[in-house]
Amino acid sequence: MVKIQMKTPLVEMDGDEMTRIIWDMIKKNLLLPYIDLKTEYYDLGLVKRDETDDQITVDAAEAVKKYGVGVKCATITPNAQRVEEYKLKRMYKSPNGTIRAILDGTVFRTPITLDCVKPTVRTWVKPITIARHAYGDIYKCTEYRVPTAGKAEIKFTDKNGNVTFNETVFDFKCPGVLMGMYNKDDSIESFARACFEYALSTKQDLWFSTKDTISKKYDHTFKDIFQDIFDADYKERFEEAGITYFYTLIDDAVARVIRSEGGFIWACKNYDGDVMSDMVATAFGSLAMMTSVLVSPTGNYEYEAAHGTVTRHYYKHLEGEKTSTNSMATLFAWTGALRKRGQLDGIDELVKFADDMENAALNTIQQGYMTKDLAGICELSDVHVLGTEEFIVKIRETYDTMVG
Ligand code: NAP
Ligand code: MG
């Protein structure tokens, strides 16, 4: 059999624990037999990050900027316990945070849906993608637990030292709470562009919602920036693609999302996106079926699974116990990246391979072969629970039957 040839390499970022094991199994069983895989490999496993003082993470992010498409395995974000466990030189930052800061991206999360796993919301027949602005707001706020009566003020001093704003927030007569938060125009603009680009690349409508009626400066600025960028740069491209941009109040959006049939992107401010992505993931089934892609405003793409390194399963695996870890989200990270690479380089076979492999994986589950996490929520009557590698091997069988 002739293997599919690639032109530009894919940036491959390996990771930790159970997902590192799955990573290798996916490559060996589902990719290398069919593709002459061309990747630029970065080992983001904790050992290598420690060896390189985390420079490898920076290099990987730069490579994604250079080549445009990357695929990342889940990685450990070290805490005190991990510093001890891996004898680390220091407590490194989250690799995803580092990569996001370099690519200046927005995170899009989309559930992998199956006929046999019914969403909790009956009307949803297509996936809903949450686009979360991952910068600022309460995640970078300054808070104060007000202990006693007193006056809280907001003051702004411009770069020349002039106080251009000074207002009382509240005159406390008793203890209370206080918070100051911010965002930046350039970050909101990046967020908007990433959302418009992603809507175009996936040919889905884009919704955006804030509370601009109540927050007439803060949230209204988000609304205005989105609208200005849309009118200036995306209106015609959206018309050509047959998709729409739709702004509505967050409360209205929530009601419409629940009544919708899905199949659109919902852009959310940082906190809304945090909360809504968990709601959407749970209502569609499970975290193990959630894909994630980081899209930069200049059109770089980094694909990954939304879940972590599945530590609990890894320790079972190390003790020689059989595991049943779901590889769907990691496989879809690979197919997502390969499809994008194929589209950018004009390699139709690569795009077709990605589609076929995803269908093979979905059909495998539909035929009743799945990992333990799905067996619990699926509606089929004849269910076979497979081990981690057995499931991947079964996908290969399905693929060969379908395509071969
Ligand atoms: P996790 O790895 O997502 O796993 C939490 C639990 O969810 C698992 O114990 C398992 O439940 C279930 N689960 C998640 N993915 C699954 C899969 N593919 N198949 C079957 N079950 C799955 O989260 P965590 O245990 O909180 O974090 C572990 C490590 O991952 C941490 O070091 C953290 O820093 C890192 N992390 C990395 C990323 C990333 O790289 N993007 C994201 C999140 C966390 P049961 O045990 O009940 O089977
Ligand atoms: Mg959350």
Describe this structure in words.
This protein has helices spanning 17-31, 46-51, 55-67, 80-85, 95-103, 185-202, 218-241, 250-259, 270-284, 311-318, 328-345, 348-366, 372-375, 388-403; strands at 4-5, 10-14, 35-36, 39-43, 69-72, 106-111, 128-132, 142-146, 150-157, 163-172, 176-180, 205-210, 245-249, 264-268, 290-295, 301-305, 369-370, 384-385. The chain is globular. With 404 residues, the chain is of the alpha/beta class. The termini are close together. The strands form five sheets. It has a ten-stranded mixed beta sheet, sandwiched between helices. Strand 9 and strand 10 (163-172) form a beta hairpin. It contains 14 helices and 18 strands. 45% of the residues lie in helices and 22% in strands. The mean pLDDT is 95. The longest helix has 24 residues, at 218-241. Helix 6 (185-202) packs parallel to helix 7 (218-241). Bound molecules: NADP nicotinamide-adenine-dinucleotide phosphate and magnesium ion. The site of magnesium ion has 2 residues, from helix 9.
